[in-house]
Amino acid sequence: MTNLAELNLAWCDVNVYNNENKQLLEKLREIDRECREFVETDQCHRFLGRGVADPRRFILIISGYLGEKFVHKIHDHENILAIYVYCGDKVKHKAWSAPYNKVKYFIKFIFF
Q1: Which CATH architecture has domain 4-111?
Q2: Whole-structure pTM over 0.90, yes or no?
Q3: What's the pLDDT at 41?
Q4: Are 78 and 58 in contact, with CB atoms under 8 Å apart?
Q5: With contact defined as beta carbons under 8 Å apart, do 75 and 100 qualify?
Q6: Which of 36, 64, 72, 98 has fewest C-beta within 10 Å?
Protein backbone atom coordinates (compact mmCIF):
# COMPACT_ATOMS: atom_id res chain seq x y z
CA MET A 1 0.00 0.00 0.00
CA THR A 2 1.32 3.42 -0.96
CA ASN A 3 1.56 6.08 1.73
CA LEU A 4 -0.08 9.39 0.74
CA ALA A 5 3.16 11.18 1.59
CA GLU A 6 4.83 9.16 -1.17
CA LEU A 7 2.35 10.24 -3.85
CA ASN A 8 3.13 12.96 -6.34
CA LEU A 9 0.90 14.83 -8.73
CA ALA A 10 1.47 15.63 -12.39
CA TRP A 11 -0.89 17.63 -14.58
CA CYS A 12 -0.74 17.56 -18.39
CA ASP A 13 -3.01 20.08 -20.08
CA VAL A 14 -2.41 22.69 -22.78
CA ASN A 15 -4.46 25.05 -20.60
CA VAL A 16 -2.82 24.26 -17.27
CA TYR A 17 -1.79 27.89 -16.70
CA ASN A 18 -4.92 29.70 -17.87
CA ASN A 19 -7.06 31.72 -15.48
CA GLU A 20 -9.79 29.06 -15.35
CA ASN A 21 -7.35 26.47 -14.00
CA LYS A 22 -5.46 28.72 -11.61
CA GLN A 23 -7.69 27.84 -8.64
CA LEU A 24 -7.32 24.11 -9.24
CA LEU A 25 -3.54 24.40 -9.54
CA GLU A 26 -3.48 26.19 -6.18
CA LYS A 27 -5.55 23.38 -4.62
CA LEU A 28 -3.23 20.77 -6.09
CA ARG A 29 -0.22 22.61 -4.66
CA GLU A 30 -1.83 22.28 -1.21
CA ILE A 31 -1.73 18.51 -1.70
CA ASP A 32 1.67 18.34 -3.38
CA ARG A 33 3.84 21.47 -3.31
CA GLU A 34 5.91 19.97 -6.11
CA CYS A 35 3.02 19.20 -8.44
CA ARG A 36 4.52 18.97 -11.93
CA GLU A 37 2.75 20.73 -14.79
CA PHE A 38 3.17 20.00 -18.47
CA VAL A 39 1.62 21.69 -21.49
CA GLU A 40 3.03 19.12 -23.92
CA THR A 41 2.66 15.35 -23.78
CA ASP A 42 6.28 14.88 -24.92
CA GLN A 43 7.57 16.67 -21.82
CA CYS A 44 5.24 14.68 -19.60
CA HIS A 45 6.22 11.40 -21.26
CA ARG A 46 9.95 12.06 -20.80
CA PHE A 47 9.39 12.95 -17.15
CA LEU A 48 7.15 9.99 -16.30
CA GLY A 49 9.23 7.63 -18.40
CA ARG A 50 12.04 7.78 -15.86
CA GLY A 51 10.00 5.48 -13.61
CA VAL A 52 12.64 2.75 -13.28
CA ALA A 53 15.24 5.14 -11.92
CA ASP A 54 12.73 7.28 -10.03
CA PRO A 55 11.02 5.73 -6.99
CA ARG A 56 8.25 8.36 -6.89
CA ARG A 57 4.67 7.32 -7.72
CA PHE A 58 2.32 9.66 -9.53
CA ILE A 59 -1.30 10.48 -9.99
CA LEU A 60 -1.58 12.02 -13.44
CA ILE A 61 -4.27 14.57 -14.21
CA ILE A 62 -4.78 15.04 -17.93
CA SER A 63 -7.20 16.93 -20.12
CA GLY A 64 -9.67 14.82 -22.05
CA TYR A 65 -8.24 16.04 -25.35
CA LEU A 66 -4.64 15.10 -24.50
CA GLY A 67 -5.69 11.97 -22.65
CA GLU A 68 -7.24 10.51 -25.77
CA LYS A 69 -3.95 10.93 -27.62
CA PHE A 70 -1.56 10.07 -24.80
CA VAL A 71 -2.92 7.62 -22.21
CA HIS A 72 -2.19 4.58 -24.36
CA LYS A 73 1.53 5.48 -24.26
CA ILE A 74 1.86 5.77 -20.48
CA HIS A 75 -0.92 3.68 -18.96
CA ASP A 76 1.35 0.74 -18.20
CA HIS A 77 4.09 2.79 -16.50
CA GLU A 78 4.53 1.34 -13.03
CA ASN A 79 5.12 4.77 -11.50
CA ILE A 80 1.62 5.93 -12.50
CA LEU A 81 -0.95 4.82 -9.96
CA ALA A 82 -4.01 6.55 -11.43
CA ILE A 83 -4.93 8.84 -14.31
CA TYR A 84 -7.68 11.41 -13.79
CA VAL A 85 -9.25 12.85 -16.92
CA TYR A 86 -9.99 16.53 -16.32
CA CYS A 87 -12.94 17.22 -18.56
CA GLY A 88 -16.40 18.65 -18.76
CA ASP A 89 -17.91 15.70 -20.62
CA LYS A 90 -17.35 12.32 -18.99
CA VAL A 91 -19.51 10.51 -21.56
CA LYS A 92 -17.37 11.76 -24.44
CA HIS A 93 -14.15 10.42 -22.92
CA LYS A 94 -15.52 7.19 -21.56
CA ALA A 95 -15.33 5.43 -24.96
CA TRP A 96 -11.60 5.85 -25.55
CA SER A 97 -10.69 5.32 -21.89
CA ALA A 98 -12.67 2.11 -21.33
CA PRO A 99 -9.70 -0.27 -21.84
CA TYR A 100 -7.56 1.57 -19.26
CA ASN A 101 -8.26 0.54 -15.67
CA LYS A 102 -6.14 3.34 -14.17
CA VAL A 103 -8.35 6.02 -15.74
CA LYS A 104 -10.76 7.82 -13.43
CA TYR A 105 -12.76 10.99 -14.02
CA PHE A 106 -12.20 14.45 -12.68
CA ILE A 107 -15.12 16.57 -13.81
CA LYS A 108 -14.00 20.13 -14.52
CA PHE A 109 -16.85 22.17 -13.10
CA ILE A 110 -16.84 20.64 -9.61
CA PHE A 111 -14.09 23.02 -8.48
CA PHE A 112 -15.79 26.27 -9.35
Answers
A1: 3-Layer(aba) Sandwich (3.40)
A2: no
A3: 92
A4: no
A5: yes
A6: 98
